[in-house]
Amino acid sequence: MTEQRGEVVLRVVPHMTDINTNGHIFGGWVLSQMDIAGGIVASRIAQGPVATVAIESMTFIAPILLGDIVSVYAHEERRGRTSVAVRIDVVATRGRKAAKVELTSGLFTFVALDENHRPRPLPEA
Questions:
Q1: Of 26, 43, 46, 125, which sits with the fewest C-beta atoms within 10 Å of its C-beta?
Q2: Which GO terms describe its biological process (predicted)?
Q3: Model confidence over 34-85: pLDDT tens digits?
Q4: What backbone phi and psi angles, to 5 degrees, belong to 65?
Q5: What distance lies between CA 124 and its chain's CA centroid?
Q6: For 48-52, which contacts have Cβ atoms below 8 Å and span 24 or more sequence positions?
Q7: DSSP 81
Q8: Interacting residues of 83 by C-beta distance below 8 A, sequence separation 6+
C-alpha cells in the first residue's frame, strides 16, 4: 500500500449478507465501497458529476472478516485533462486489540461529466 493513504472517505462494517462461502467478505462488496469513496473524491476535484472509467490496478492483500471495521482512504494520484486517477486503500480495524490490517489497494480513474454525460475538462487545480 502507498505510504500516503489520504483522507478516510468511508468507514463501514460489513454484514452477514456480505459473506461468501469461505466466511470472508465478497470482493465485489469491497470494490463497491472503493468505487463510492473514489467517486466522492473525484467529484470534489471535478466540482461535479463523474463516472468510473477504469480500475487500472487492484491488489487484494488480506481477506475482510465479519466484524471488521473497514476504513476506505482515498487521494488524488494524477490528473489528466478530463480525468482523475484516485488511489484507494482499504484498512480493517480488527479484534479487541483494534489491530490495523491492510486489506486492498487500487487505482481508479474517473472522468468528469457535463450535463449531456459527456467528458468535460476538469477545473484548474
A1: 125
A2: acyl-CoA metabolic process; fatty acid catabolic process
A3: 999 999 999 999 999 999 999 998 999 999 999 999 999 999 999 999 999 9
A4: -110, 155
A5: 23
A6: 48/112, 48/113, 48/120, 49/112, 49/113, 50/84, 50/110, 50/111, 50/112, 50/113, 51/110, 51/111, 51/113, 51/117, 52/108, 52/109, 52/110
A7: S
A8: 53, 109, 110, 111, 112, 119, 122
Q: Identify the structural domains of the chain with CATH numbers, from first to last.
A: 7-112 (3.10.129.10)
8 A C-beta contact, residue 72 and residue 88: yes
- The CA dihedral of 94, 98, 102, 104, to the nearest 10 degrees, is 40
Please, which pLDDT band fits residue 3 given cuts at 50, 70 and 90? low
DSSP state of 103: E
* This model's pTM is above 0.85: yes
CA quadruple 33, 34, 36, 41: dihedral, nearest 10: 150
Backbone angles phi, psi at 33, to 5 degrees: -65, -40
